[in-house]
Specification:
This protein is α/β, with parallel strands linked by helices and 147 residues long. The chain has 6 helices and 5 strands; from the N terminus they run E-H-E-H-H-E-H-E-H-E-H.
Length: 147
């Protein structure tokens, strides 16, 4: 945890593929809970390894989009699945995730790993109505209908 007077560094990991309002809301909420905000953008390879999908938008473009909206102070490319590796490089105090992780085995693992280095995990409401997965499914159905 941070000490009195120390600036709070926040960290929002994500793929940020097919950037949508859920991403925007998460970044805005995180911004309000820290002094310096870093977006951890998952590399194409790590997304494929962790989620089994290749992002639709290439990493360099996803990073440019997140950087350009003016909410984050910095971006960081995640090249491993272990958030402790990101912590070693960024030294954040709070990690922000959607509440779809809360109470799940993966959320519990994340909380344990972050507790090891004194990081608070904060959850925000997940935007179920808009997600990259839903957008990807819609695009796939549209492409199938067009062929």
């Amino acid at each position: 945890m941070s000490s009195p007077g120390q600036k709070i560094i926040g960290y929002v990991p994500g793929v940020f593929d097919l950037f949508h309002v859920g991403h925007l809301n998460m970044l805005r909420q995180a911004r309000s809970r820290c002094d310096f905000l870093v977006a951890g953008i998952v590399s194409d390879e790590m997304c494929e390894e962790g989620k089994g999908i290749r992002p639709t938008v290439p990493l360099v473009e996803r990073e440019a989009i997140v950087d350009a909206i003016g909410i984050v102070d910095a971006t960081y490319v995640e090249t491993t699945l272990d958030k402790r590796d990101a912590w070693r490089d960024v030294r954040f105090h709070r990690l922000f995730k959607g509440d779809d992780w809360k109470g799940t085995p993966k959320g519990a693992r994340l909380e344990e790993q972050m507790a090891e280095v004194g990081v608070e995990v904060c959850y925000f409401p997940y935007s179920i109505q808009t997600s990259s997965t839903a957008l990807r499914q819609h695009l796939k159905r549209a492409a199938e209908a067009a062929s």
